[in-house]
Sequence to fold (92 residues):
Amino acid sequence: MNQAINDAGGDSAVLGKLFGVDTWNGQNLIRIDIDNPTSLNPRLPTHNNSGANANFVPGGKTSGGISEVVVDVIPPEKVWVTPVKPISEGRK
Fold:
């Protein structure tokens, strides 16, 4: 995740392409980290998962080549959220 954000300079349009989401251009993005995600039954996504779109590619990679998995419901206490800021907004 760090590499993708750094490679994109925090730019939502570039991140959208990497993650296979066409609607992120100009959006304020957040990063969601999960404590111990391996305890939440990680598995490869399918086209039937909520959030799958026309860019879905089977095999555990987004259409932009980023690894992805789905997990069971995430308890709120296992989540922390961080805004993703473009370099132009002072991201270091």
Summary: The first helix runs from residue 2 to 8. The longest strand covers residues 29-34. DSSP finds two helices and two strands in the chain. The chain has a mean pLDDT of 89.
